[in-house]
Amino acid sequence: MNHIQIFIDGKEIECSKDEILLWVSLDNGIYIPNLCAMREMVGSYGACRLCYVEVKDEDLPVTACTTKVKEGMVVNTKGPKALRLARTSFELILSNHPVDCAHCLKSGSCELQKIAKCLGIKLNTKRFKKFLRDLPIDETSPVFIYDPNKCVLCGKCVWLCQEKLNTKAIGFAYRGFQRWVTTFDNEPVGLSECKDQIELVEICPVGAFVARDKWNKKISI
Length: 221
Ligand code: SF4
Ligand code: SF4
Ligand code: FES
Fold this sequence. Notes:
By secondary structure, the chain is α+β, with helices and mostly antiparallel strands. The protein has helices spanning 21-27, 80-94, 111-119, 156-164, 199-203, 212-220; strands at residues 3-8, 11-16, 52-55, 62-63, 74-76, 144-146, 170-173, 180-183, 209-211. The chain contains 6 helices and 9 strands; from the N terminus they run E-E-H-E-E-E-H-H-E-H-E-E-H-E-H. The strands form 3 sheets. It has a 5-stranded mixed beta sheet, sandwiched between helices. Strand 3 (52-55) and strand 4 (62-63) form a beta hairpin. It starts with a strand and ends with a helix. The site of one iron/sulfur cluster has 13 residues, from helix 4.
């Protein structure tokens, strides 16, 4: 029998053995903050550390994107230990993020806005000192505008170009605060092999990749 029963926030859920907890939860209407996981990806980077949940009989919170469901599993997405870890991860992400939703084309569909609401954190939180980057906005692509300053390093665009499209056009460069997504020779992303990929706009959870046509409209208003 592949079908099992689990409980998330008290809701009884039927799912298949070995499914990933994050997708089971989202598919059943229970939101867990997440930035770096993708259904198409084999395995998860586990990079953003936002999807913490508590599982009964486990000492420490686990990341839902790397956890497989098990028969009878009891999950609490709002446990205090999990929320504390997720909130800290989120506030660290925000410490490098230039929050300017009023002028951002992703406003309304931005994952950061959704996560902030779920975790009860203000986007302009001041818990950690702000370190903003001042990288040039790339307007060279015919289909997208790329603002690396808004990137939250989720890795989805890198996965798209490297794994799905097999182009090797872009990747992560440098480490720590200097880390950013660029081409291997630091040419603009909009001139790379991925220059026509509107999918970059769709896959990016924040306002780092936005559609050029919307950008042009905004500029002409
Ligand atoms: S990426 Fe999201 S949080 Fe950042 S400015 Fe745009 S809408 Fe606001
Ligand atoms: S540009 Fe967007 S998709 Fe790419 S790593 Fe940054 S936030 Fe993620
Ligand atoms: S979605 Fe689980 S660590 Fe990013």
